[in-house]
Every structure is written in structure tokens, then in C-alpha cells.
Amino acid sequence: MDKQKNTKKISVLGTGGWGTALSILLHNKGHKVFLWGSTPDYVEFLKKNRENTKYLKGVKIPSDLNITSNMANAQIETNFIVIAIPTPYVRKAIKTLKNHYIPGTPIVSVIKGIENETLMRGSEILGDILGEQPIALLLGPSHAEEVARKLPTTVVVSSKDMKLAREIQNIFITKHFRVYTNPDVIGVEIATSVKNVIAIAAGICDGLGFGDNSKAALITRGLAEIIRLGIAMGGQRNTFSGLAGLGDLITTCFSPYGRNRLVGKQIAKGKKPSQILKEMDQVAEGILTTKSVCRLASKYNVEMPITKEIYNVLFEDKDPMKAVNELMVREPKSEIEDIML
């Protein structure tokens, strides 16, 4: 299963941990991979050292895996394009891609975020710039650090075109990386984006020294918020109990690799978001996604109290303990009816 019989040329845009890990996975299956990065200096560093010490330390990049900062070189006769770029930078990168993109080339998005200005999901940003193109999502509980080290991982591929979804499934699946299909594009993108907001809350729980009871309640009620918003936007209920929903939520709320959880822990200790991000030198999608989710909740008239309190902590300088106390003393409700709303 690991070696692909029909070799494809695949361009992976984004030299972060996830782009690097997927490039290695695809290369190990026998595909010809081009890993593109936007920063020429760091691309040269990667080519020379064959290790992404900034985002995926300790994992060697194969010597024959192509790395480039030239978008034109990456796109020549490409069979598939993987977009592994943080949401705030996607639009700029795809505008550059448009100059070299051959219409009809399938795109695989691993973007987990919602654009602030437009409230567009990752696939919608791609469509907004490139027009109607074959797009699939590859999302779920999948930290780059574990995938790169071949630890068992399971994700979903979602697309409006299920023939494309099955093709992507076969390209990516290995004995270490299992891929399911799911036709619910909206639900998969909303679940894997909003979970980053709940992960910040989970980090705050950990940073404040709360226990298992608190964490379990947060994840359960956070999932209820994701379900309410996802269904209001057109997602399918079953998606939220699957890998892209509950699966990804559990991973990001517990994993030591989770950047959003780390943000929450640092906030609980008194640090400001701007200071935390500067020290991380990475993108924690949940911070900006919180703004987008609050606007979506208002637009679709969906109650999301945890998300609202995270917004207050991040952008209104609210004390995290006060936010927790106000969540605990809200008006009593029925759990089942509250999830159904």
C-alpha cells in the first residue's frame, strides 16, 4: 500500500510542518514531489540541511524531494496541488499560484481556518480566486510530528466530487495513514476550523490547573457549539461525531503539539496573545478564527457561549477566570435541547 504504482507529480505549497510531513509521505509512496515555500532564504536552508528545524525538527527530508521557492517550477505539468498554508496567508499565495495554475488541476486543501474579512472557508477562498475547480479537503486529527514519524493516523478526504475524493484517498493512504471519504465539505471545514477555538479554551483550562471534569465538560459543550454552527451553515450532523469533528477536537485539546492549546495555557498565565505569537514564531489558527466564528454565530443566530468568552479573553482583555465563572453561572438548560438548537 505504501508504494504508488502510478507515479504522480504533486506540488505541495507551504513549508510548515504539515506541508513538509505530507511531502515526505507522498515522496515515500513514490510520487515526484515539489515542496514550495514563499521565503527563498528558508527554502535554501531546507535544501542544504534537509531538515525543517523550524517546524518539524528531527525529521529528515529525502535528498531527492524537490524544494523550491519558484512557483513556476513547482507547477510545471503538476497532476495535483496540495495547499498547506495558514489561512491568513492563503489568499496572497493563491493569487501567485493563479499565474501558473492550469485550470482543471485537482487541488487538495489542508487549510483549517476561516478568513476574517470574508468569512470564507479554505475551499471557498480557493474558489474565489481560481474559479470553479476540482477541490478536495484532507482534514482530521493529524499532527505533522506524528505523521512524519509514521505513527498511525486517520483522516478524511471530502469533496463535492466523490470520484475525486476516492482518487485522493488512494494517493494518500498508506499502512500508517488511513483515509476515509466524507461528502460533507461544509461540515468537515467548519468542524476542523472551530475546534481550534475550543482548543484555546482547553489550554486555558490546563493553564488554570483545572482537572479532568472541566476538560471533559469543555470538550463536550464545545462540540455542541460546533454542531449548532455547522448544521446552521448546512453541515451534516454525522460529520461532527466523526474524525473531522470529535476526532480532531480531542486531538487538538489534549496534544502537546497543539499550538492553539499552547496559546490558551500561556494566556492563563497572564501573557497577551501578541506576545505569545511573537514567541511562537508560528500561526495559531484559533486566534483569528475566533473573530470569524463569532461573526458567523451572529450571522446564523447561533448561541456559542464558549467561543464568545474566548473572544472576550483574546480581544477584550477579559480575565480567564472571570470568563470561566460566567460560563458556569449561565441560566440552566437541557443538554439535549441545547445541542439541538
UniProtKB/TrEMBL annotation:
Keyword Lipid metabolism among UniProt keywords: yes
Record-annotated active site: K195 (proton acceptor)
Binding sites annotated in the UniProt record for substrate: K112, R259, N260
InterPro entries given in the database record: 6-PGluconate_DH-like_C_sf, 6PGD_dom2, G3P_DH_NAD-dep, G3P_DH_NAD-dep_C, G3P_DH_NAD-dep_N, NAD(P)-bd_dom_sf
HAMAP family given in the database record: NAD_Glyc3P_dehydrog
Record family assignment: Belongs to the NAD-dependent glycerol-3-phosphate dehydrogenase family.
One annotated Gene Ontology cellular component of this protein: cytosol
Lineage: Bacteria, Pseudomonadati, Planctomycetota, Candidatus Brocadiia, Candidatus Brocadiales
Reaction(s) this enzyme catalyzes, per UniProt: sn-glycerol 3-phosphate + NADP(+) = dihydroxyacetone phosphate + NADPH + H(+); sn-glycerol 3-phosphate + NAD(+) = dihydroxyacetone phosphate + NADH + H(+)
Record GO terms (molecular function): glycerol-3-phosphate dehydrogenase (NAD+) activity; glycerol-3-phosphate dehydrogenase (NADP+) activity; NAD binding
Domain Glycerol-3-phosphate dehydrogenase NAD-dependent C-terminal: 184-324
A Pfam family assignment: NAD_Gly3P_dh_N
Protein name: Glycerol-3-phosphate dehydrogenase [NAD(P)+]
Residues involved in NAD(+) binding: G14, T15, G16, G17, W18, G19, A144, R259
NCBIfam families, alphabetized: PRK00094.1-2, PRK00094.1-4
Gene coding for it: gpsA
Annotated EC: 1.1.1.94
Compartments (UniProt record): Cytoplasm
Binding site for NADPH: W18, Y55, K112, A144, R259, V283, E285
Source species: Candidatus Scalindua rubra
Enzyme class: oxidoreductase
Domain spans labelled Glycerol-3-phosphate dehydrogenase NAD-dependent N-terminal: 9-164
Keywords recorded for this protein, A-Z: Cytoplasm, Lipid biosynthesis, Lipid metabolism, NAD, NADP, Nucleotide-binding, Oxidoreductase, Phospholipid biosynthesis, Phospholipid metabolism
Domain of life: Bacteria
Pathway annotation from the record: Membrane lipid metabolism; glycerophospholipid metabolism
Keyword set includes Nucleotide-binding: yes
